[in-house]
Amino acid sequence: MTDLVVHNAAQVTTPTDDGGMMTTQDGAVAIEDGVIVAVGPTDEVTREYPEENATDAVDAAGKTVLPGFVDPHTHAVFAGDRADEFTAKLKGAEYQDILEEGGGILRTVRATREASRDRLVESLLARLDVMLAHGTTTVEVKSGYGLDVETEMKMLEAIGEAADRHPIDVVPTFMGAHAVPDDTDTDAYIDRVVEEQLPAVTANDLAEFCDIFCEAGVFSVDHSRRVLEAGQEHGLKPKIHADEFERLGGSQLAADIGATSADHLLQSTEADITALGEANVTPVLLPGTAFSLATDYADATAFEAADVPVAIATDFNPNCYSQSMEFAIELACNGMRMSPASAIRSATVTAANAIDRTDGTGILRENSPGDLIVADVPDYQHLPYNFGVQNVQTVVKRGEVVRH
Ligand code: NIG
Ligand code: FE
Fold this sequence. Notes:
This protein is α/β, with parallel strands linked by helices and 404 residues long. It has two domains: 2-67 and 364-403, Urease, subunit C, domain 1 (Roll); 69-354, Metal-dependent hydrolases (TIM Barrel, Alpha-Beta Barrel), CATH 3.20.20. The chain has 16 helices and 16 strands. The chain has helices spanning 42-48, 83-90, 95-100, 105-114, 117-133, 149-165, 186-203, 221-233, 250-257, 270-278, 287-293, 300-305, 325-334, 340-347, 349-354, 382-385; strands at residues 2-15, 21-32, 35-41, 54-59, 64-67, 69-71, 136-142, 169-177, 209-212, 237-242, 261-264, 282-285, 311-312, 372-375, 392-397, 400-403. The strands form two sheets. Strands 1, 2, 3, 4, 5, 14, 15 and 16 form an eight-stranded mixed β-sheet that branches. It has an eight-stranded parallel β-sheet with strand order 6-7-8-9-10-11-12-13. The longest helix has 18 residues, at 186-203.
């Protein structure tokens, strides 16, 4: 039995496996057992998979069907917010000064330590709802506002419980090395991450990736190597916040240890970009962070020139408070000068690579997961062209309409 037929779409647009983009006018998609069984012109697809035989059907007349978005970098579980720091930054305060004065990440750590696991689950579920409304069907969520075993575990457990209760696929990342807590120094804290947190997190199978904030004034390249290699020994795949404010060498480390992704990359040089490409590390650019910090954007065109495809993500966190991949795509175009086709690729299949989902996630084709969105736009160009609004209307996860 067919679960779902989406038909009559003005356009079905999808990245292809060979790096291109495929567009079908008057298109349709059929899904069975949560997996795509046909993509093509409506008359062809519905001849084989008639709507009347399907459990559900969506008429997408005048609209565009795309793969569900993949958001491969968020810090979406935390308590409290930092709206007042937002206002302070607008008056000139700097992100790193706020952090050094005990604000920023450390303030969110204090709030998150105090919050119950249930509160974290409830707030994360509400945030996942907003992500879903803007087309996200798979998201990565990091810990890192605990900085002690107990709270890092609480965060990862909250991620796991929210994942069980929400249609979005949630990929958990352990990021104990997000900042140095104020009761210790950096070297001693790295010992705790490696000797206490990593073993506890992995013994309970709470994470798939390990991440670190490799940055001047936070963790060095040596610290990062130590944590990420220890993570690998415990079965966690490495990710790294690299070369954001200063070019410390995080990209080169990512290439050296075979990280799944390297993220931020505002200071990356041509040599860094080549190294990432050669080592098959997916670069993740976070235009929302640059937008909210009012800094320059990462140089997406340099990656494009080197033929190294980039992913984009929201980086949703208390300092970059946007759950919307629609907005990330708009910023990729309007801020980083990517074409709509490249931005959509970055938000789908390349984003899936950044979290090691290489089963066809982010591509509409036979045997891919049945994750798609219907946007109220006549073609994919209109998605970033019509910015600042919610274009996504219907969201399908594994063949089920989860939002309409
Ligand atoms: O990716 N850079 C470190 N982590 C986050 C910010 C987290 C925060 O400010 O709470 C980021 O931008
Ligand atoms: Fe981040």
